[in-house]
Amino acid sequence: MPLGTADRAYNLWCEQEEINMTDTMKRIVLAERPKGSPTDANFRLEESAVPTPGEGEVVVAVKYMSLDPYMRGRMDDGPSYAAPVPVGGTMEAGAVGEVIASNDPKFKPGDHAFGMFGWATHGVAAAKGLRKVNPDDAPIQTSLGVLGMPGFTAWAGMTAYSKMKAGETLVVGAATGPVGSMVGQLAKQAGLRVIGVAGGAEKCRMAVETFGFDACIDHRGKDAKAMREALAAECPDGIDIYFENVGGPTLGGVIPLLNLHARVIICGMIAWYSGESDETGSMPLQKLWRYALVKRITIQGLLQTDHVSRFGDFLREVGPKVASGEIKYAEDVAEGLENAPQAFMGLLKGKNLGKLVVKVG
Amino acid sequence: MPLGTADRAYNLWCEQEEINMTDTMKRIVLAERPKGSPTDANFRLEESAVPTPGEGEVVVAVKYMSLDPYMRGRMDDGPSYAAPVPVGGTMEAGAVGEVIASNDPKFKPGDHAFGMFGWATHGVAAAKGLRKVNPDDAPIQTSLGVLGMPGFTAWAGMTAYSKMKAGETLVVGAATGPVGSMVGQLAKQAGLRVIGVAGGAEKCRMAVETFGFDACIDHRGKDAKAMREALAAECPDGIDIYFENVGGPTLGGVIPLLNLHARVIICGMIAWYSGESDETGSMPLQKLWRYALVKRITIQGLLQTDHVSRFGDFLREVGPKVASGEIKYAEDVAEGLENAPQAFMGLLKGKNLGKLVVKVG
C-alpha cells in the first residue's frame, strides 16, 4: 500500500471531537489496603484532566463499568495471579464506553470500546488492547457480563474442564451471578441436572425461574453440615461437577457428595476473599487428599486469561443465544461512579441480584 | 466347532498334577483391625486344605506375592475405593505362581499365572480373572512390580494425566519404590528434570545411580520448610509435575513451589496411611484452594483400575524396555509367607529398598 493511502486512512480515522483540556474526569483510587472487608476509608475519589490520546491510543468516555469479586484480590498486597493495585492507584475494572478521541485507525469517535479503564469516568488506552463493541448486537453493558469476562470465564471453564455429560449433576454457587448463571445454563442445555446455591429466597427464585435451574439452595444460615443435607436432598445421584465460585460452607457440603471421577473447577471463593475462615476453610488438607484419591477427583484452577484465544469462539457461539433469549442474563445497575465503593462492598456481601455494573456516564 | 473337538481340547488342558487332598496350605488372615501402625497382633497364620478347582477354575502354588502400601487401607473399615478385608479374612495381595490344577483350557499345569491370591501359599481362582505370565519374557516376580500393578499405575498416571513436556521439572516421592522409580524413568526418557524424594542416603543414591534421576532428596528429619528449601535448591525453575505417593512434609514442601499450570497426580499418601498427621496434613483447605486458583493447578486422583483397558498397551511398550534394561527395576525379597507381616510393617516405615515381594514357595 503506498504511503499516501495509509496517510489518508489515518487522517480519516483520526477525526475526533475536540477535547477541551480543562475537562476533568473522576476516578476512584485505592486509598489504603483493607483489613478484612473493605470500607469507605479504603477508597478515595479524585479528579484530574481528561487525558489526550498518544500515538495509537484512544480516549473513552465510560458508560458502564464492571464490579466483580476478583477486585477484592487486587486490593491485597500478596502473591496472586495478577499484580495488586498500588495504594493511590486507580481501582481496576473492565468498562465500556464511547470513543471520544482516537489516534488509531481501528477506532473512530462514536465507536464503543471495552477496555480495562478502571473505576473512572474516562480512560485512555492503546487501541490494540481494546475490543470494539457493537451496540446493535446487544446492550453495550453485556460486554461486562454475559458476553464479557464473567460469561467467558464460565464458558471457558465448562468447555475446557467440565467434561459434562447429559444426566450428570452440576452444582454451582453464586448461581445468579454472571458466572454462575452462565455455568448453569450451559449445563442445562447439555442435559445435566443443575442445582444452584445462592443467598436468599429472591436469588433462589431467579435461579429457577429466570435461569432454568432444577433447584437452588439458600445458603444463608447454613453451615457445612446443613448445606450437605440440603444438597443431598437435591442431588440424589451425587455431584459430578462442582463449579466453585464461593468456598465456605457450600464447598464443605459439596465435598462429601462428590461422585467417582467428579470434577471441581475452582473459579473463585468469594466467601474467603476478605480473609474469613470457617469450618470448611480449615478442613485439613489430608482429608481432601483422601477424597481426591478415593474418588479420583479432578480439581482444576480456572482463570479466563489462559483461554483468551477462544474468546472469538465464545462470542460466535453464545452471542446469538443471548440475542435470541436462549441464554438469559440479569443486571443490577448502580448509578454513578461515586457509588461504586458501596456497590462493591454490597457485592462482596451478595447484595446484588444479577451482574453488577455501575452506570458511569 | 463340533462338540467332540471342544471336549478333546478340554480334556487336553485338564491334565493336572494329582492334588493330595490332605495337602495343606498356609494363609495369613487379618486377626484384628490395627489402630495406627499395624503390629504382629493384627495378623494370624492359619492352615487349611489346598482347594480343588471348580468349573473354570485353576489352583496355583504361589511363588511370589506382592506387598504394597495400599494394603494398609484394606485393613481399615472405612469408605475407600475398595472393600476392606473382613476380620478373619485372608489379607489381600497380588501373587504369581505355578498352576498345579486347572479346570479351564486357558491354563495347564506348569503354566504361570498372576492373580489376587492373597497372603497365602496357594490360591484358587476363575481362570478368566488370571493373567498368564511367561517366565521367558522376564522373571515372574516382575509381574508384581515393574511389569505389574505398580509399574502400570505409574505408566497409566503419567500417560493419562501428566501432560509432561521436555524441559519441565517433575518431583516424585518414594522414588525408589516400584511406582516412583517408573514415574521418574518415564519422565527422564521424555526429557524432564526429575527430582526424587526418598528416605535415607542409600535410597537416594539408588534413585540417581540406578534409576537415573537428576537428584534425590533424603526426607528424613526434614519438616515441610526444610523440604521446601531442599526442593527449591534442586528445582530452580519450580515444579511442573508432582507425582504424589507420600503426603506429609514432602507435599508441604512441594506446594509452594508449584508452577503455573502444574499438575499434581495423587496416587498415594503413605506418610498418612496409619492415621498420622503433621503440619502439611493439617494445612487449611482454604490455603490449597488459593494455590490451586492462583496457579491454575490440576489435581488428579489416580487409581490404576480406571485404566485397565490399557494394560496390554503398557506391557507392549514397557515390557521390551525392561527386557533390554532401558527401564530398570529393583527388588527387595522377603523369604517365607510367615515373614510377610514383618516385611509389610517395614514397608510402611520405608525399610525396603526397591519393590518388596515375598518369596512364598
UniProtKB/TrEMBL annotation, chains A, B:
<dbReference type="GO" id="GO:0016628">
    <property type="term" value="F:oxidoreductase activity, acting on the CH-CH group of donors, NAD or NADP as acceptor"/>
</dbReference>
<dbReference type="Pfam" id="PF16884">
    <property type="entry name" value="ADH_N_2"/>
</dbReference>
<dbReference type="InterPro" id="IPR041694">
    <property type="entry name" value="ADH_N_2"/>
</dbReference>
<feature type="domain" description="Enoyl reductase (ER)">
    <location>
        <begin position="36"/>
        <end position="358"/>
    </location>
</feature>
<protein>
    <submittedName>
        <fullName>NADP-dependent oxidoreductase</fullName>
    </submittedName>
</protein>
<dbReference type="InterPro" id="IPR036291">
    <property type="entry name" value="NAD(P)-bd_dom_sf"/>
</dbReference>
<dbReference type="Pfam" id="PF00107">
    <property type="entry name" value="ADH_zinc_N"/>
</dbReference>
<dbReference type="InterPro" id="IPR045010">
    <property type="entry name" value="MDR_fam"/>
</dbReference>
<dbReference type="InterPro" id="IPR011032">
    <property type="entry name" value="GroES-like_sf"/>
</dbReference>
<keyword id="KW-0560">Oxidoreductase</keyword>
<dbReference type="InterPro" id="IPR013149">
    <property type="entry name" value="ADH-like_C"/>
</dbReference>
<dbReference type="InterPro" id="IPR020843">
    <property type="entry name" value="ER"/>
</dbReference>
